[in-house]
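Table S2 (continued). Query chain:
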Amino acid sequence: MSHQDLTTGALALLLRHDLTGCLQAGHQAAGLLERLAETGALDRTTRELCLLMSDRLLDARGVGA
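Corresponding output:
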C-alpha cells in the first residue's frame, strides 16, 4: 500500500468510527495508522500523532496498546 493509500484508508476508517461508533473501523484505522507511522514518510510530529491515535483507538476497543 502506498503512503497515500494508507493515509486515505486511515482517514476514511477513522471518520467511519467517529461517526458511527463502529469498533471494527476503529481497529482497522489503528492498524493503518501504525503502518503509516512505520513508513518513514511522515515528520516526527505526525508520526507521533498517528501512534497516539492508534493507541487511543485500541484502548477504546478494550484491546490495549
